[in-house]
Design a protein that fits this description.
Layout (H helix, E strand, L loop, with lengths): L1 E7 L3 H11 L7 E7 L2 H8 L6 E5 L3 H4 L3 E3 L5 E3 L5 E4 L5 H4 L4 E3 L5 H9 L6 E3 L5 H6 L5 E4 L3 H4 L6 E5 H9 L3 E9 L4 H20 L5 H6 L6 H11 L2 H4 L2 H13 L4
Parallel strand pairs: 1-2, 1-3, 7-8, 7-9
Antiparallel strand pairs: 3-11, 4-11, 5-11, 6-9, 6-10
Length: about 260
């Protein structure tokens, strides 16, 4: 049986959605070997064609578009799912970006949204997403651009929201926020790519139908996240658009990739 490598994040939404596929719970004509990495590391490795399938930030699509093709299933997008800018004290976005701001990666969708919302962006420091809250709280940086579960826990670090970039995007475009998608490497044959897309969709549907099946796997990869935060994370980032991006989702992706924010 043919083997495909599949790069995705260890975050609860991915381990929940792809558990069935990577653990042989659905019938597929290939084996899948999962490789769990931070989203920005996945973005970087895509430049070297690292995996047959990979999750990629929509913000990274422009740089690797010729190497990978987007699948319609498995994406992370929707309403109310955007990244946040946080700081120690209340301030405007204009004020926040005059100082040093920590970002989760230059190719992340979060950073692309920030650049669109704040064209006069000043100094940025790249760091892994799970270090940013502490960096802001300690004063290492003046503000932070946060993603994933950090949107549920920033207040626990004594921080306040400067702006929800998802709300900003939805107000500007009236489209869902397109965070990331599952892509297949360009050298994967079209018929196999179609089978992969069906398998991803079936895995997401299995997760919806059997939400407890992946719980141990999700917890094993969730680091210090509480069960409550894991559940919030999954509920927010895995939705009907994860089964199929839909025409509206495709429009949102095209809009963000082109930077065409009116």
């Amino acid at each position: 049986m043919h083997e495909l490598t599949f790069g995705h994040s260890p975050c609860p939404n991915d381990t929940f959605a792809f558990h069935a596929l990577t653990h042989g719970l659905i019938d597929v004509p290939f084996r899948v070997t999962p490789v769990l990495l931070d989203i920005e590391e996945l973005n970087r490795r895509a430049h070297g064609d690292a995996f047959h399938l990979t999750k990629l930030s929509v913000g990274a699509f422009a740089g690797v578009g010729h190497k990978y093709r987007l699948l319609r299933s498995g994406a992370a997008l929707g309403h109310g799912v955007g990244p946040l800018v946080v700081a120690r004290t209340p301030m405007t976005l204009a004020h926040a970006v005059r100082g040093t701001i920590a970002i989760p990666g230059l190719e992340t969708t979060a950073y692309r949204l920030l650049r669109l919302a704040a064209p006069d962006l000043g100094d940025v420091i790249e760091m892994r997403y799970d270090r940013i809250l502490q960096a802001v709280s300690s004063g290492e940086v003046g503000a932070g651009l946060i993603i994933h579960e950090s949107r549920f826990t920033y207040a626990d670090h004594g921080l306040v929201k400067v702006i929800d970039l998802g709300d900003w995007w939805e107000h500007e475009t009236h489209l869902p926020v397109p965070l990331a998608g599952i892509c297949v490497r360009a050298d994967v044959a079209p018929d196999e790519a179609a089978a992969v897309e069906r398998a991803i969709r079936a895995s997401v549907q299995y997760a919806f139908d059997h939400p407890e099946a992946s719980r141990d796997y999700v917890r094993a990869n969730a680091q210090e996240m509480s069960d409550a935060v894991c559940d919030q994370h999954i509920k927010l980032y895995v939705n009907d658009l994860s089964l199929d991006i839909g025409d509206e989702g495709l429009r949102a992706i095209e809009r963000l990739v082109s930077d065409a924010v009116a």
